[in-house]
Design goal:
About 30% of the residues lie in helices and about 30% in strands. By secondary structure, it is an alpha+beta fold. This is GNAT family N-acetyltransferase.
């Protein structure tokens, strides 16, 4: 059964193979991966593989990344959702979102991420959620803190994209 979320201005649904071109367009734009360059796609074939991994998240866990659309518009304006990861051996959900720069500064990111957070809190009964955010990414910090995430210094990481602060929600819960 496909999960569909609706907000005041957006529709969120599981990505389909028809969304692969939009995945490539958005994730190959260096502006969208400025703070996470390891997420940048270089070839369209990478988007195919990424779609397969996103689809596996849905099949294996019942949650994943959503394609975010404006009503009446076929092409996604972005993607937002969660995936299961392990942080120091602890299972958590990692929050993810990327939007077409053409729609930045309109509140769509916060609106979509807010819908995802409400959905997973209801579906999985307040699971621990992690958002890794580069300290210079003020827009992402505003989004996650406006949704109740709190900075958690002990969960911060240094990885392929350098140092990232950890913002957490429902951290005292178990997945």
């Amino acid at each position: 059964m496909e999960t569909m979320l609706e907000t005041a201005r957006l529709l969120l649904n599981q990505p389909t193979p028809g969304d692969i071109d939009a995945m490539f367009r958005i994730l190959s734009d260096r502006r969208t991966t400025r703070f996470n360059p390891s997420d940048a796609l270089q070839w369209n074939e990478e988007a195919d593989g990424l779609f397969q991994r996103w689809e596996a998240q849905w099949e294996n866990h019942g949650v994943g990344y959503f394609a975010v659309r404006l009503p009446g518009r076929e092409e996604p304006i972005g993607f937002a959702g969660v995936k299961h990861v392990s942080l120091s051996g602890r299972p958590v959900l990692n929050l993810y979102y990327r939007f077409d720069p053409a729609v930045w500064h309109r509140g769509y990111g916060r609106e979509a991420v807010g819908a995802v957070v409400v959905h997973i809190n209801e579906f999985l009964e307040l699971p621990p959620v992690l958002a890794l955010v580069h300290p210079d990414n003020a827009a992402s910090i505003r989004i996650v803190t406006s949704l109740g995430f709190e900075r958690h210094a002990a969960a911060a990481i240094s990885g392929p994209d350098g140092y990232q602060d950890a913002y957490v929600l429902n951290w005292d819960r178990q997945l």
